[in-house]
Structure prediction request, 479 residues.
Amino acid sequence: MAKQVTCRTVYEQTPVEDGTRVLVDRVWPQDISEEAARLDEWLSTVAPSAALQRSYSQDPLEYAEFRHRYLAELEDPEHRQAANHLRDLAEHTRLTLLTSAEDPHGGHVAVLAEWLARADPARSDPPSRGFLARVSSAVADLNAGAFAFVMGTGIVSTGLNINGAHTASAVLLVVGLIGCAVLLPAYAWRLLRRRERIVADFVGPRGFSFLTIVIAADVMAARLAPDGHTAAAGAFLAFGAVGWLLLGYAIPLGLIASVRRNPSLDHVNGAWFLWAVGSESVALAAAALAQQVSGRQLPVLALVCWGIGLVQYLLIAGMVLGRLLTRPVEPGSLMTSSWIFMGAAAITVLAGTRLLSLPSGNMLLSRPVIAGTSVVLWSFSTWLIPLLLALGVWRHVVRKVPFRYEFGWWNLVFPIGMYGVTTHELGRATGTSWMTTLGRWEIWVGALVWLAVIIAMAGAAVRAHLTTGHGGDAVGSSA
Prediction:
């Protein structure tokens, strides 16, 4: 018979048509008794391992990686017996999977329902999957922060343009524009077809990742403006500013007003800095465009957003440092999003240097205040780099977390590229020659990191395609 699998939160009232109700969480839910839950079974052994669950909850940029690892866990001996039991139930009765999570259509329950919906490879041949089916699956699992690819590509293109590598810069600019043209419709499709998962991402710790859409648009605007493409830059800035205004309020309001949320300092991570980066990206794009067109509106917008982003950065920095210093940190959850800590400071400095390039009559703050703040933040971002490198060594060398491609690597490209551009531009604005020289070298480092990550991403895509071609489950970590 056709499988009928439903996902519900254990706190919902029990509909008559629920059929067999099975709790699939590892830990019993709070504030509900066994009698009130009205369970038929509790299969704790089918839930993700404790280490995997902590990794997913503490680093919200990696749903596709979590899905990939949980699907692999369902095939191991620890999970297999319970998973096969669920498959048997699904084939002979209506099955309802229960969880204490706020959104039953996200997290491990959604992955488990997907696994149950597949044909059992031990009982039948795996269905062939065409190109469109694979694309649909990839879009369904699209990373909430997928526009980090455009962010990293755009800032490296800006750096190469500064270094005089105009051809390479133009190529990366085109790559970034293609990325926008592909990813924006993919987000729209996911919103229409996978709304539950989008909502779950939006009102959870991964909500700030959606600000990568705004940041990418503003980075492209800042790249296009110096080349005289003012109309295109203005369009990107308008899109970014409206998106910043909507998402900048909606995401924190969603976190605050979410029903049955479970607030915890453990949910705070480097991705939260995107709140500040979003504000600074608007300031950066507005200041870059203000150098090409006349008027007071753009300089005022740039200065106001710079101030907002500065305060947001200081607030988030305190929260993230408090979380790192006072709460246990799993090496598997210490992802590359931590580098946004440095990147957020760097983009604040870069926006400050762009403000220093504007005419004095358009400034609401004195130049010494902007310049002094920029130097202090650049110093702090420089101090952070050895700390972030040491944490990477601890994660991969000491704790032996496998060093393999995951989409979070793009969160490394943007901060490194941004730091190089920022160093050069701060040196130019302050007349510090050694800083401009250092910045040029750092820009080349950022370009090499971009190249390494794009090669790793392509390699992961090829491996996933080969796996799919042999009938296995291909879950690209770059999704």
